[in-house]
């Protein structure tokens, strides 16, 4: 049993599964490092920014991305606890995440945007489904200790900030990257004012679910690297 557990820990799950795939990904990251040049991010923050650049080939994220000082450490700790979960504003985020990587950390994903009760509540209150989806996650007790990823709906992020401030919701980390022209920039600026919980945001209108997936994959990679380093030093 011990041998099997050790073998699992030493088998990478957050990299490409073939040498060819790994070579392409590593070459892409090396190109980004070279072309990005000097930056102000820490050694743990840069892999998150770099993977976001990789997802969209957009170097604007080098500078637009902002981190709460404890964001990366909080994300890694939540993942390694194997008691966390991912709550997303839209299904696209959940579908985009690697199943083996989620399984490695015992992560379940949740989204409620298409639930019938969420739609009915939004229609009754003349609000958005995204708002009601965040409220449902709070009612179910899923926000506390979760990594919440928002890439599509600014109203979801605005509501999440309200739930933190007024309802005592305490996510482990907010990855708030909604894209758009109405309230997107404002929602992220609002999230960046939070002191109660750590956050990662992108200034301005840019964002999207693919960037949330990229950021989460970067955090999964960092968490596995930390585990593997500790495994090697303890063996």
Automatic annotation (TrEMBL):
Q: Which processes are annotated in GO (biological process)? A: cobalamin biosynthetic process
Q: Which residues form the Cobalamin biosynthesis precorrin-8X methylmutase CobH/CbiC domain?
A: 24-220
Q: Which Gene3D superfamilies match?
A: Cobalamin biosynthesis CobH/CbiC, precorrin-8X methylmutase
State whether keyword Isomerase applies: yes
Q: Which keywords does the record carry?
A: Cobalamin biosynthesis, Isomerase
Any GO molecular function: precorrin-8X methylmutase activity
Q: Give the record's pathway.
A: Cofactor biosynthesis; adenosylcobalamin biosynthesis
**Stored InterPro entries:** Cbl_synth_CobH/CbiC, CobH/CbiC_sf
Q: Name one Pfam family in it.
A: CbiC
Q: Which domain of life is it from?
A: Bacteria
Instruction: Give the similarity note.
Output: Belongs to the CobH/CbiC family.
UniProt protein name: Precorrin-8X methylmutase
């Amino acid at each position: 049993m011990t041998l099997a557990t050790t073998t699992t820990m030493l088998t990478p799950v957050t990299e490409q599964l073939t040498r060819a795939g790994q070579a392409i990904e590593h070459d892409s990251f090396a190109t980004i490092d070279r072309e990005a040049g000097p930056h102000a991010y820490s050694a743990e923050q840069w892999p998150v920014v770099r993977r976001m650049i990789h997802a969209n080939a957009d170097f604007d994220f080098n500078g637009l991305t902002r981190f709460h000082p404890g964001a990366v450490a909080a994300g890694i700790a939540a993942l390694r606890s194997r008691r966390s979960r991912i709550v997303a504003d839209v299904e696209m985020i959940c579908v985009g995440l690697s199943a083996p990587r989620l399984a490695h950390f015992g992560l379940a994903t949740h989204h409620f945007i298409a639930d019938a009760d969420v739609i009915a509540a939004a229609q009754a209150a003349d609000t958005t489904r995204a708002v009601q989806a965040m409220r449902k996650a709070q009612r179910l007790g899923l926000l506390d200790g979760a990594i919440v990823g928002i890439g599509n709906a600014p109203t979801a992020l605005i509501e999440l900030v309200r739930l933190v401030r007024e309802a005592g919701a305490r996510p482990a980390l907010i990855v708030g990257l909604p894209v758009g022209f109405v309230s997107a920039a404002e929602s992220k600026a609002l999230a960046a004012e939070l002191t109660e919980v750590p956050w990662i945001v992108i200034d301005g209108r840019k964002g999207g679910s693919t960037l949330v997936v990229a950021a989460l994959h970067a955090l999964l990679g960092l968490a596995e690297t930390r585990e593997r380093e500790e495994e090697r030093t303890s063996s």
